[in-house]
Amino acid sequence: MKKKLSIVDIANSLSISKTTVSFILNGRAREKRISDELVERVLKYVKEVGYKPNSLAKSLRTGKSNIIGLLVQDISNQFFATIARQIEDRAYKNGYKIIYSSTDNDTQKTQELIAMFRDRHVDGYIIVPPQGIEEDISSLIKDGLPVVLFDRYLPNVETDYVIVDNLFSTYNATRYLVDKGYKNIAFISFNSPQTQMVERLGGYKKAIAESSLKSLIKEIDFYPDEKLIIAPILTFLQEHTEVDAILCGNNQLGTCILKVFRSLDKKVPDDIALIAFDDYEVFELSNPPVTAIAQPIDDIADQVITILLNKLNSTVEVDAKHQVTLATELKIRNSTK
Q1: C-alpha 332: how far from its chain's center?
Q2: How many domains would you assign to the chain?
Q3: What is the pTM for the complete model shown?
Q4: DSSP label of 250
Q5: 308 and 285, same structural domain?
Q6: Are 26 and 72 in contact, with CB atoms under 8 Å apart?
Q7: Which one of 16, 29, 90, 297 is separated from 169 by 20 to 30 angstroms, measured CA to CA?
Q8: Do 331 and 169 meet the contact criterion of CB atoms below 8 Å apart?
C-alpha cells in the first residue's frame, strides 16, 4: 500500500521547515511573510504529488473540524429527512458539513454514536434524544460543546431545544372532532415516556375530559417491523367497534391505521374519521386526503441551525439557553366530515 504523504514528507522533499509548509497550506503565508515564490513552489509540489491533508490531525491542531453531528430517530422518516436536508444546506453555506445517523430511538446506539462523533471531534451536536442519554448530553455541555435538541427535550437537562406545542396541538384536534359531533374518539400512539408523546396524550385527555366523553386510548410498543404495529391496532378496533374517530400520535401510525382500515373495509370518514399528527405526502394523496397536524418544518430547521451556528460562532460562552416552542397548523381535509 502506498504511504500517505505528510507535511513532514513535503518539507523534507523541498528542504524547508514543516512549519513553513503548514503556514502555507493553512493560508497564513502572507501573515508569516513567506515569499510568493516559495508559496507557489509548495502549492505546485502539493498538486503534483496529490497531497490530501489529514482532517482529523487538522481538527486537533486548530480545535475545529467544521463538522456538525446530527442524530435523528429515523432518517428515512419524511419529517426527519426534510429537516435534516434543510439543516445540511444551511450548514454547508456557513462552512460546515453534516454527519448524520439514525438512532432508532435506541439508548445504547445513541451513546455509541455520540462517542463516535466525539472521536471525530465534531464541533456541535443536533440530537433527537431517546430516553437514557441525559448523562451523555450533560457531559457534552460540560465540555463546552454546543448541543441543540429538537422534536423533544430532556426535562432534567438544561439545554437548547426546538419543539412544537404538542399539548395544544392534540387538544385542538380533539376539540375539532368533538365539535364535528364525534362521540367515541380514540387516541392511538406509541407507548413512550418521551416529552412529545406524553404531551400529545395530555392534550387528547384534556379535551376529552372537558367534553365529558369516554377516553379510548391505545398505546403501542414501537417496532421497526410495521406488521407488529398494525396487529395491535387491528385488535383494538375489532374490540372497540364503537370508535367513530381516531387521532393518531405520528405519521407512521397514520399510514398503519389506513392499512388497517383497508383490511377491515372501513370507509373514511363515513365509518371512521382520522386525524394524524405530522403531515405527510401520503396523507395528501390518500383517498380521501387525511386531516393532519402539520409541524412547521421550515421553522424548526431554521431555528435549530440558527441556534447552533450562533453558539459555534460566538467568541464567548453564553449560559442562556434558547428553548423555542412553535405552533402547528391543523390542516382540514376530507377524512373528517
Answers
A1: 26
A2: 3
A3: 0.81
A4: S
A5: no
A6: no
A7: 90
A8: no
